[in-house]
Specification:
Blueprint (H helix, E strand, L loop, with lengths): L2 H24 L3 H23 L10 H7 L6 H18 L1 H10 L2 H22 L1
Helix pairs in contact: 1-2, 2-3, 2-4, 2-6, 4-5
Length: about 130
């Protein structure tokens, strides 16, 4: 796979997951909406990684760490938000935290976080051009 094909792979799968996250939000599956949203951001960050660092992105899911390793120029607010979104990955995966996260993911909470994720997603895509 060429570098460009690899980048396209990460962006296409992010786009697919973004559509899934929107559907999950519309159907009230707020915890899973935020989990999939984490994957959207992770995949876009991995496209940056492939473009700017190496063909093989890291296997971890820490968004802030991936962004730093890819040498993205982020604001402090963006860094804090990436750290926050990384938690959505962990909180849905582990049974002892899953129910607490489910309860946290009200429509209001998810709307606020998902709107910020959509803004970040669009901003990241604009930085790739």
């Amino acid at each position: 796979m060429t570098k460009e094909e690899h980048i396209t792979y990460w962006l296409k799968t992010a786009e697919h997951d973004f559509e899934v996250a929107n559907h999950l939000f519309e159907t009230g599956r707020y915890d899973w909406c935020l989990f999939i949203s984490h994957l959207v951001i992770e995949k876009v960050l991995k496209a940056f990684w492939v473009r700017d660092v190496d063909d093989i992105p890291p296997h971890h899911h820490n968004l802030l760490k991936i962004a730093k390793e890819a040498r993205l120029n982020l604001s402090e607010e963006q860094k804090l938000f990436l750290d926050d979104v990384t938690g959505f990955n962990i909180q849905v995966r582990y049974p002892d935290q899953k129910f607490n996260f489910y309860k946290l993911c009200t429509k209001e909470f998810t709307t606020e976080k998902f709107e910020k994720i959509k803004e970040l997603y669009q901003w990241l895509l604009s930085q790739l051009k």
